Amino acid sequence: MLLKRLACLSFSSSAASRILKIGDVLKHSRKFSDLDVLEYSKLSHDSNPLHFDSKCAKTAGFEDRLVHGMLVAGLFPQIIASHFPGAVYVSQSLHFKSPVYIGEEVIAEVQAVSLRENRKRYIAKFSTKCFKDGRLLVLDGEAMAILPTLSMGEQQ
């Protein structure tokens, strides 16, 4: 299952190199299932009925049950860690723009916006965005991570 999920990771760069540069975009697509929402709820203790009760979600103005926003945001550290094993996630800002419903495909992107060396490691700032239905923005923000190298590791 993990291999299937990681198979959706992709990388685009202005150059063909495997060294991270400003402007490079790393992506991952994912559909969240009922089971994903249930398991996340068990771990986070977030049992808001908007995630489990269609009627409650519709009464609140949504089309159906929602995927937890933080579960969707969890795609960002997954992308970074899969390309840079040993990366340390330092911070993340988030702005929730539109709901994600169970079964919808989400495409998460992290784009390198600044890189600086610090004690043989690299401080990387990333723009973070999630889209659905083509290019509808559902989540954006910024992340900071300490990378052991700018050389991208092979995805497992």
UniProtKB/TrEMBL annotation:
One of its GO terms (molecular function) is (3R)-hydroxyacyl-[acyl-carrier-protein] dehydratase activity. InterPro entries: HotDog_dom_sf, MaoC-like_dom, UPF0336/Enoyl-CoA_hydratase. CDD domains: R_hydratase. One of its GO terms (biological process) is fatty acid biosynthetic process. Residues 29-120 form the MaoC-like domain. SUPFAM superfamilies: Thioesterase/thiol ester dehydrase-isomerase. This is Uncharacterized protein LOC104589636 isoform X1. The lineage of its organism: Eukaryota, Viridiplantae, Streptophyta, Embryophyta, Tracheophyta. The gene is LOC104589636.
